Amino acid sequence: MKNCLVAQSGGPTVAINASLAGVIQGAIDSKQFDKIYGSLNGVQGLLNGRLMDLSQKFEDTPMFIELLKKSPSMYLGSCRYQLPDYSEDDAPYAYIFNKFEQYDIDAFFYIGGNDSMDTVDKLSTYAKAIDRDIKIIGIPKTIDNDLCITDHTPGYGSAAKYVASTLLEIGHDTSIYPINSVTIVEIMGRDAGWLTGASVLARNKYNFAPHLIYLPEVAFDEKQFIKDVRTAMDRYNNVVIAVSEGIKDAKGQYISATSAVEDTFGHSQLSGTGKCLEYIIKQNIQVKVRSVEINILQRCAAHMSSITDIGEAFRLGRHAVEVALQGKTAVMVTAIRKSNSPYSVDMGDTDVKNVAGLVKHVPREWINDVGNDVTQEFIDYVYPLILGEPVVKYQRGIPDYLDISHLFPNKIGE
Amino acid sequence: MKNCLVAQSGGPTVAINASLAGVIQGAIDSKQFDKIYGSLNGVQGLLNGRLMDLSQKFEDTPMFIELLKKSPSMYLGSCRYQLPDYSEDDAPYAYIFNKFEQYDIDAFFYIGGNDSMDTVDKLSTYAKAIDRDIKIIGIPKTIDNDLCITDHTPGYGSAAKYVASTLLEIGHDTSIYPINSVTIVEIMGRDAGWLTGASVLARNKYNFAPHLIYLPEVAFDEKQFIKDVRTAMDRYNNVVIAVSEGIKDAKGQYISATSAVEDTFGHSQLSGTGKCLEYIIKQNIQVKVRSVEINILQRCAAHMSSITDIGEAFRLGRHAVEVALQGKTAVMVTAIRKSNSPYSVDMGDTDVKNVAGLVKHVPREWINDVGNDVTQEFIDYVYPLILGEPVVKYQRGIPDYLDISHLFPNKIGE
Fold it and tell me: ipTM of this predicted complex?
């Protein structure tokens, strides 16, 4: 028998470890692999020989799979390493494939976003060029939900649930004073507005926040924005605005890049998008205004994940093993939505070239005409993805996650 | 029989509604009051006649008390109204006491922080001056935990749990890259470091974050700070720093006030404390650095509250009713710690003058000598307060909280 290898790349999500758990469980259940290796810090682990025996971990650690499914961030760590074009520099390829040989790797699973799919593409192209039979499979993940072909990406549903819940809680928080106020909430998403749009799910029979939603898919117009805020203030005391960090003006320039601020040392500092909108409002409207950046919490708050998301992330991991055992390579596994009500998805796969380096945007028709809200189509799309809550185990008052000390081999945090 | 009145003031916490629930349950169980009125937006509701019949709400809404205990922010709204000295202007006093008369109010419960206790003090002093027999009782709340006499304040334990859990999740998030990085996490607390200190509870057998903790109780020294960060970087790849928004230099000036930034309009903008430390590190150390402001989430994330905190907030509400029925006035109810292990508290009360306008700081001996961490005494103090998790009900994928549309009477959000 042969072995398989799995690695993670890109930014953290709360579901990426569930996909890793799916790969491990799938590989063990298949009985087709002797060992399951994890490469620490993406492909870098291969380059510097930092591999972890996950089959051993599975045997040694009770509840390993269950804990892994619920632990945030990346159990195997990440990397920012980008492979060169092999026609220009094949040294790292030769090194990596030498390692594949050395560890008898028959299948390599890479969990990540569109940059990681580029790596899957490059490695599988190289394998073909040197006629090496190894299955290289991509497994999608990103809170940004901007991968093509797949209906959605693991990590998105949980982040969407966190964003919607947080907006509801901010709705409660801002409602306490009977005076006008504006609260701007900046949400992650440089290129696509999927996550910011999910804030719409905070609305219920009494909570109308967020009252305005701005996505990068529509050019941001300052005059229209000021008009929108004034109109909202006529209707609501405490206006809450959800905005993507990546909104751009009609020329395609990031709004955050248009209002650099100078610190006391005279250095220009990019202020965030939320801060920019705060300045715009302060300049134009007499009202109490503040901005809130949800920041990295939206991608690491595993205590509030969507069980739909975690379950699908796990299924995609398992499915990747099946796909590899079918002999496929150079593909990314995908979720295919069969029905919204009852919600159901099938697992599929696609040529990784359909995904690598590409971005899926929110369709323009899922955003209202004036560009300050999303439509019912968007709601119908995202709603099923946030449903269901896992039982979070707490230990000493804080969530009980999996030990990640193997990520710090050279420092005291071992 | 007579009636009683309850109101909330100051900033939101996730436990202040549990104290309200305790007052309602206590008043109903005592059978000593005909009606329980809630004043909307603190004492302002009395001034503009916006009272809510909570006894009716209790009868009409199934699970009212249970939902109220778990809903964040302030069911009755808040206000920033400060009473004048009655010797200078007794008009609002005359108006308020006229309303007390009109609604046959025998006891007034005011849930809030040290400013609200000042209101309790002023109202009860006035009552005495005009020889009016009404019991005016303060119930503490604040995530800042800076009220005197009481061992701790409702709202603090839940915020502390949220901060500790978030720091653990940030610890996971920052661990994924095998390169040096510094993450600064700014936590609420203008005057006292109780909440920032609670971040220490994020540490466990594998997570050493936060590696440095800075509280307002110790003068912040930039040189020492740079030295601390360098030392931490020798030991850990990814250094996480927890800092109170209210840290000050040796002259008592807020650090955030020392580095105003100028926006593109040429206006000076106060940047946050976290941003200031970010600039300091960028100026002095070559390392990837970012700052995260937990912001209002730490006071409104009811989906992660401490059941110890919620339970005590409820008990203090009930106890306030008992104290009023004993004929006391001008007091604030208090939690008295009997034992740490097993943890237990008694309920007591104190003259509100011992609390009004005063601030309780973290004892200097609960902070290490060099001023960059807290001691075991601090841990022993805060640990029991974050224990226990309530069952959070979710509806359509987001937490199910109590409808607060009564707070928006004049706008469309009714």
Answer: 0.93
